[in-house]
Specification:
The chain is 84% helix and 0% strand. The protein contains 17 helices and no strands. The protein starts with a helix and ends with a helix.
């Protein structure tokens, strides 16, 4: 939930950041990009550390340091110090990504992981929804500093919870014949990360700027626009669970990722075309577009872990998420700059092309996933033959 609060809840403060530090729309993009950049550079080291030491110390220690980064951002009096504080917040907050996903790989079987990782990923939009409402309300009632300090307190509570209750899964041996290359040298993981990153570019544009768009272009109050962001998060949580269930039933992850990409791109493009339509029509479209563009996240984590195997799952999921975060870092200032020179309507229309490219990039992994499924069935058949 902390990751969701940081990445998808904090954008509700976009108008407050802008007014507090006298920022342009493009500079607001750099506020969220600094957080994403911190996560990007730290994901692989945290994932590798989780593979070596286990999930518990990484999660507890990393989140405690995340709270310290938020405190620094809260007391910042200059734009540069704010960016540095949020960068550190991202660096330490990245600890939660590989550690929690790796634990799920150890505790649950293949036919359960899509659902469980989907449920795990719902913590991101749920955390984002709660934070979108709470942070905006707190900042408007008191101050931006109070809102960030409250988020720091919540993060510290999450760190203590993880340190006390998280348990490392029991050790296990990889199946015979399963010898994937190291994650950083596995072309499949790089392709998965690139395709996922193209999907997240559109997701970042919706999540990061929908409050600002509705406030500036459609005249909604910050609180009302934050409700729309919360609605996107709730719909995203439901979508991730449903997509995870479907992927477990079919034992396929990539095909559903590609379907989500096309659905999200279509809905976002339609929302852009109807940007000036009545809110009764526009708002449901934005919520559906945001949910579709967020529904695939659990599938991408599951696919990365299954490609690499449990022993290197932390590194694999962190590598995949590093590529995702890299394009997310690029997307926010790029989208903000595009809005400044054109309009929100055209910017959303342009960014809707990214998931279509992602759909194309991911295509070879569909066949590769089928090949891995066939190899797995052959290993099971050979195992049964030996036993009998």
């Amino acid at each position: 939930m902390v990751t969701g609060a940081l990445r998808q809840g904090m954008p509700s403060l976009a108008p407050v950041f802008r007014d507090e530090f006298s920022l342009s729309v493009g500079q607001v993009g750099f506020v969220f990009a600094s957080l994403a950049l911190g996560m990007t550079v730290a994901l692989i080291p945290w994932g590798a550390l989780a593979d070596r030491t286990g999930e518990r110390p990484v999660l507890g220690g990393g989140l405690a340091l995340t709270a310290a980064g938020l405190v620094l951002a809260a007391v910042s009096e200059s734009f540069a110090l704010l960016l540095f504080g949020l960068f550190l917040t991202g660096v330490f907050g990245a600890s939660a990504t590989g550690a929690s996903g790796r634990a799920i790989m150890g505790w649950f079987s293949r036919k359960e992981r899509g659902l469980v990782l989907g449920i795990r990923q719902t913590a991101i939009p749920i955390g984002g929804a709660i934070a979108a409402l709470a942070l905006a309300a707190l900042a408007l009632a008191t101050s931006l500093e109070a809102a960030l300090l409250a988020l720091a307190a919540f993060t510290l509570f999450a760190a203590l919870t993880g340190a006390i209750w998280m348990r490392d899964p029991p050790p296990s041996e990889p199946p015979p014949g399963f010898k994937p290359p190291p994650p950083t040298r596995d072309a499949r993981l790089w392709r998965l990360g690139l395709g996922s990153g193209l999907l997240v570019m559109a997701q970042a544009a919706v999540i990061g700027f929908v409050v600002l768009f509705l406030h500036d272009d459609r005249g909604m109050s910050v609180a009302s626009a934050a409700l729309v962001l919360a609605g996107i998060q709730v719909a995203s949580a439901v979508a991730r669970i449903l997509v995870g269930l479907r992927s477990d039933r079919d034992e396929r992850r990539i095909v559903l990722m590609r379907q989500s990409a096309l659905a999200g791109a279509s809905l976002l493009a339609l929302s852009a075309v109807l940007a000036d339509a009545p809110l009764a029509l526009l708002l449901p479209l934005l919520i559906l577009a945001g949910a579709a563009m967020s529904s695939w996240n659990g599938l991408a984590f599951t696919a990365a872990a299954e490609i690499a195997g449990r022993r290197r799952a932390g590194t694999a999921m962190s590598l995949q998420n590093t590529l995702v975060s890299t394009l997310g870092v690029i997307a926010t200032p790029l989208f903000g700059g595009l809005v400044e020179i054109t309009s929100f309507q055209l910017a959303y229309l342009v960014i809707s092309v990214a998931p279509v490219i992602g759909w194309w990039v991911l295509r070879p992994l569909e066949g590769e996933e089928d090949d891995r499924a066939d190899a797995r069935e052959e290993r099971l058949a050979a195992s049964y033959a030996v036993r009998s």
